[in-house]
Amino acid sequence: MSAAELSRRRRTRWPWVLGIVLVVLAALVVAGELVARAVVAQQVRAQVISALKLPSDQQLDVAVDGIVLPQLVAGRLDALHLSSRKVEIGPVVGAVSVDATGVPIRGGRLGEASGTVRIDAAQLQGLLKITSLPVEKVSLGEGTVKAEGSATVLGNAVPLAVTLAPGAEDGRLVLTPRSVSIGTVTLDPSDDSSPFAAALRPLFSPQRVCIADRLPAGVHLQRLTVEGEVLAADFSADSAITEDARLREPGSCS
């Protein structure tokens, strides 16, 4: 075989060899990406569970946007999503979802982070037991909270119901009464005509529940709304929470 023929055969094989090399390299990159994504999810899950003192078997889903390998090189995750169907925070159990951007890997400030905890009426009822409301049953609907119980009038127990608007103020859950029903009589805050008005006046005071001592100091309650039959509490995190260990310690209600 002449040198020219050998040269032609080599040139013919070269594109195939190059193609195989590119396929192998692509496979290695994909494998590396999958491994990196799994490791990042595992590490994030472990750190969150440790920071919030959750059980080691806590169900927690972690998702990272975009291609992970370049983000690891840059030392910052563009966007991170956490979710759990059931998390115990103090005496409250609820579903949690968190979105964070600019998450530092090797130290530095967090970009932004916000999340929502959703609890049902039974969980809210447990929180309201520390208020002055005569709570025996709580229901959620039409954007309001309804607390039902009973009051003693002239020695007799009379059904009592308070309709409240949820909100947040200085990190506290605030429930502002909109109407009070006693028996068949319903009053609003401006109603002074009923003989029960003076007796029921204390029930129109806003009810405040502090939960700061059940959260890291760097996590703040922003908003409280009723979504269908669920109470949604929206939170945000201080950007310095990734740098300052004090912000990861439990807050205070003082």
How would you briefly describe this protein structure?
This protein is α+β, with helices and mostly antiparallel strands and 254 residues long. The chain is built from 4 helices and 12 strands, in the order αβαβββαβββββαβββ.
What does this structure look like?
There is one protein chain. The chain folds into two domains: 81 residues; 147 residues, no CATH class. With 254 residues, the chain is of the alpha+beta class. The model has no long low-confidence stretch (mean pLDDT 80).
Entry keywords:
single chain, 254 residues, alpha+beta, 6-stranded antiparallel sheet, 4 helices
- Overall mean pLDDT: 80
Main beta-sheet strand count, sense and barrel state:
6 strands, antiparallel
Which class do the helix and strand fractions yield? alpha+beta
Radius of gyration: 29 Å
Q: What is the element string, with H for helices and E for strands?
A: HEHEEEHEEEEEHEEE
